[in-house]
Write the structure tokens for this entry.
Amino acid sequence: MKKPIIAIPIGDPAGIGPEITVRAVSDPVVKNAARCVVVGDRNVVENTYQITGIPLHTNVIENPEDGDYSDGVLNLVNVENIELPKLVIGQISGMCGKAAYEYIAKSIEIANAGKADAVATTPINKESLKKGGVPYIGHTEIFGALTHTEDPLTMFEVRGLRVFFLSRHVSLQKACSMVTKERIMDYVKRCTQALAKLGVTEGTMAVAGLNPHSGEHGLFGDEEVREVIPAVEELKRLGYRVEGPIGADSVFHLALLGRYNSVLSLYHDQGHIATKTLDFERTISITSGMPILRTSVDHGTAMDIAGSGTASSVSMVEAILLAAKYSPAFTGKG
């Protein structure tokens, strides 16, 4: 069986995206697991060879199946959109924000056409996107728009711990107001479908508690009594394997031990803190509920160290490996 093809947009050219891409695609572990196709500006990529000290041969291609996946070769879909003399590494710019968007859009186009089995993304900068006139705040919104997916699901995975999020980038006050029976039921149903598409069909999903000790039966906070418990009970009646609310101070540990196949975190930081404390570099974001599979590093552009040759590619390697791991089940090519 052929190794899956993973499309990798290089991210913001002024950040560490190009560097971690070059490091990751030349890693023997990655080469053993996947065929990587980089999407970016050739001049930026080849300038990155000098930064990393990794001498690769650039093989410009249009169709990923035509790539040369032998050692020492970087297969590139060349999107020429950077004036290299104007590129200031480590500096936010509209040119780089627009370029980063175009790399992502091209990667999605390749995956939508069935020419790549998944997309593994590198960091982009929200401020650069805005300066570049890009009408989306981040990756999830871009992927949602370009795959015609209304509300993509975000799942983190680290060391086998899987965490979904009931809400993303909203205030904590608004996140609490979004903890409703209807929303929880909708998310558990869609998360269960997303897991099945990734090949995860065994086990039980846990719903985290919102308040300390899940509110102690309404003693301090009644969201669990009003919304969470009724949702879980109805889901069980419908045949879903779900439990909760489970206190947020223990549910992630229990899932890590294997008691649950996943956890539905009720707000952004609840799940982020748990996964990133466990292993910051290996916490990978998986966007599902779309026609294509997308994995991503979960760190930023690190403008402060960009261009220094010191950026770690551990997270990028892990993102590609997870894309390769799940893509056969997702695409049906396994």
The first helix runs from residue 17 to 25. The domain at 1-152+290-334 is CATH 3.40.718.10 (Isopropylmalate Dehydrogenase). Residues 228 and 308 are 48 Å apart (CA to CA). The chain has a mean pLDDT of 95.
